[in-house]
Structure formats: structure tokens, C-alpha cells
Design goal:
With 166 residues, this protein is mainly α. The protein contains 6 helices and no strands. Helices cover 75% and strands 0% of the residues. The radius of gyration is 47 Å and the shape is elongated. The N and C termini lie far apart (105 Å). 0% of the residues are buried.
Length: 166
């Protein structure tokens, strides 16, 4: 960077005052300031453009890396699928030769039946209150309105049929 001290600026100012004159010096200073501001803005724009281009290049590299990784994953998946298909086909072909073993009735594991019963009992214990208990203890299983309850328990001959508007 240019090393400009206050003494050098004072010498430049005195020389400008002598050569340009006191009446034109303010216009020249304004013009120099605007040109300096434009130059700074132009330099900042160029810097930002260069940094954007660098970021764009980095993004392109990252995009290419991601595409390469995706294609590698796709290749490995297709290889695995083809291996599984070949093993299934070989197992299918082997099972055709062993049809007699498939005709035997299947045997059930007692532990799976016990665990299923345990889950069923646990669900019955932890779920809502059963309806038979509600009937026995007097809890209401359905809620009805007061008017519906009155109509349900009032005998038919005691009901008055009066018009609504009298």
C-alpha cells in the first residue's frame, strides 16, 4: 500500500492550490472524490464477482462428487439385487427338487404361541374397561341427554302431548 503521511498530503494540497487555483480547487476535489468512489465500487464489484465464480466452481465440484457417489451407490445396489435374485433363483430351483419335504405339515414353535397369548392378555389388561365390568359395577357405557333419559323412563300414558305454541 502507498505510504502517505499528513505532511505529504499537505504538500500535495498546497501544490494543487497553486497550480489549479482557489476557485477551481473545490470542483476538482469533488471530481477526484467521485472518481475515487467509482474506482472503489468497481474494484469491490470485481472482487465480489471473482468470489462468486470461485464459489460456483466449488459448488460444481461438490455437485460432481455427489453425482459420483450416487452412481456408486446405484451400482452397488444393482449388484446386491442381482446377487439376491441369483440366490433366490438357485433356492427356488433347489426347492423344486425337494417337493417331498414341503408336503410335510409345518410344526409350530410353542414359544411363539405363548408370546402371542401373553400379548393378547397384556392388551386386555392394559386397554379400556371391559363392557361386562361396566354393566356389573353400574358404570355407564353410553351417555344420553337428560331429555332422552326422561323420555326413556316416563311411562307412555303419563306423557302429555301439548302443542309447543299455545
Amino acid at each position: 500500500m502507498i505510504d502517505i503521511a499528513f505532511s505529504k498530503l499537505a504538500i500535495i494540497g498546497v501544490a494543487a492550490l497553486v497550480f489549479i487555483g482557489p476557485e477551481k480547487l473545490p470542483k476538482v476535489a469533488r471530481m477526484a472524490g467521485t472518481l475515487f468512489g467509482r474506482a472503489q465500487r468497481y474494484i469491490n464489484d470485481v472482487k465480489s464477482e471473482v468470489s462468486r465464480e470461485m464459489e460456483l466452481d466449488e459448488l460444481r465440484k461438490m455437485h460432481q462428487d455427489v453425482q459420483d457417489a450416487a452412481s456408486d451407490v446405484e451400482r452397488s445396489i444393482t449388484q446386491n439385487v442381482s446377487q439376491v435374485e441369483s440366490s433366490l433363483h438357485s433356492a427356488w430351483d433347489d426347492s423344486d427338487t425337494n417337493l417331498n419335504s414341503l408336503m410335510e405339515p409345518p410344526t409350530f414353535d410353542q414359544s411363539s404361541v405363548k408370546s402371542k397369548n401373553f400379548r393378547r392378555k397384556k392388551l386386555a389388561h392394559t386397554s379400556a374397561i371391559p363392557s361386562w365390568y361396566k354393566r356389573q359395577s353400574g358404570q355407564k357405557s353410553r351417555v344420553i341427554s337428560g331429555a332422552a333419559r326422561m323420555a326413556k323412563h316416563t311411562p307412555a300414558n303419563a306423557r302429555k302431548s301439548s302443542p309447543f305454541f299455545s
